[in-house]
Amino acid sequence: MTFTISVRDSDIAFGCEPGQNVLDAAETAGWAIPYSCRKGVCDTCLGSVTAGPLDMPGSGSVCGPAEVRLCRARPTGDIEIAPRRIAARTPPVRKRLTTTVYRRRQVAPGVTVLDLRYPIGRRTPFQAGQFLNVILDDGDTRSYSLANAPQHNDLAQLHVRHEPNGVFSARILQQLEFHDTVEIEAPFGEFFVEDGEGPLLLLATGTGFAPMRSIILDHIARRLTRPVHLYWGARTLEDLYARTTLQAWTRRYPWFRFTPVLSRPHTGWEGAAGWVQAAAIASYPDLSSHHIYACGSEAMTRAAAEELARERDVAPDRFHSDAFVSAVGAPPASNNPSQRGAQYV
Questions:
Q1: Structural domains of the chain ordered from first start
Q2: Residues 203, 198: Cα–Cα separation, whole Å
Q3: Could you tell me if 105 and 112 are in contact, meaning their C-beta atoms sit under 8 angstroms apart?
Q4: Please, are residues 170 and 164 in contact by the beta-carbon 8 Å criterion?
Q5: So what's the pLDDT on residue 326?
Q6: In Å, what is the CA distance from 299 to each residue of 28, 39, 191, 258, 296?
Q7: pLDDT at 330
Q8: Which residues contact 130 (CB under 8 A, 6 or more apart)?
Q9: 262 near 272, Cβ under 8 Å?
């Protein structure tokens, strides 16, 4: 028996098979709802079930109205939902591939850049800002943003933050050698820049820089001139592992600006300090024409959404975020410094 999911205050309706969650049912039917982890850890897919019954794994039966993570909500009858956003989108074509390690570099005390090559002749088209899943031997997955340009879709560059006791970052990553194999599936994610007008404001913390790198490289490859300003936050200057490249880009491309933001600045530091969104707010009294993309710790993405709405009246449809969380099954963190690359460590 197929259930019907209808979207409140719209003509949108689609089917859902028993045991299927709302997010997957929408995606299958060609409707995109924002998400990040797909495992009920972050709040990116948070939405309301305004009517109807559903099952929430770990919580039991729920009957609307209720606010739930739509990646976990499984209808047990016809339901009505009110997601934060929903848009028509061609169902994604994902590929599962066995990649090989091409290079592994430690670029900062707590960050490794891992370059993976796909089999000859295989490609995985994606949009700048999306991510892939690394598939572990037990079938579990770890999610990492794609840091390479979409034009180079025969490879994957991952920025992996080291986490104590992390299954991938602490155990597997450090043992990988040249030509070792890594199983992946891609692409995933609704965090990408739509073509259009208006300047782009990018806010990143830690390895949240990875999808921003992809977005900027895509801009360069397509010879776009839409203004882009990246604010990248870290504890120390050493943690901003790509700053030399970013500074070179600011000299080469008139449309690109880069502002480093340190939370623990060294003596003599004269640049921005504190939170990335606070630095951006201080520099931009008017953000009415900007589209904002925030990626990094959930503490930052939540605070950025709230502060930009309050201080600069940024509408929800112009603020896009991809929150990195630290571990499967952990509750959302209000002050968690982890990033994807350590999303599922």
A1: 3-88 (3.10.20.30), 95-188 (2.40.30.10), 200-324 (3.40.50.80)
A2: 16
A3: yes
A4: yes
A5: 58
A6: 31, 18, 17, 22, 8
A7: 41
A8: 145, 146, 186, 187, 188, 189, 191, 192, 211
A9: yes
Phi-psi region of 155 (alpha: psi -120 to 50; beta: other; left: phi over 0): beta
Q: What is the DSSP letter of 138?
A: T
Kindly state the tokens that stand for 134: 């690394």
* Residue 271: count of CB within 10 angstroms of its CB: 11
295, 270 contact by CB (below 8 A): no
- Residue 337 and residue 175: Cα distance in Å, rounded? 25
The pTM score is: 0.83
The kind and range of the H/E element at 322 are strand 319-324
Beta bridge partners of 228: 200, 256
How far apart are alpha carbons 165 and 187 in whole angstroms? 27
Length of the chain: 345
Q: Which of these, 189, 124, 202, lies nearest to 157 by C-alpha position?
A: 124
What is the 3 state secondary structure string of 238-279? Answer: HHCCCHHHHHHHHHHCCCEEEEEEECCCCCCCCCEECCHHHH
How many angstroms separate the CA atoms of 117 and 209, rounded?
Answer: 21
Q: Is the Cβ–Cβ distance between 31 and 86 less than 8 Å?
A: yes
The reported pLDDT for the residue numbered 325 is: 66
Nearest to 245 by CA among 236, 256, 234: 256
211 three-state secondary structure: helix
Mean pLDDT for each consecutive 10-residue tract of the chain (345 residues)?
92 93 91 81 84 86 87 92 87 90 94 96 94 90 94 96 84 89 93 89 97 98 97 96 98 98 93 96 96 92 94 92 62 34 40
Say if residue 156 is exposed, middle or buried (CB neighbours under 10 Å; 0-12, 13-18, 19+): buried
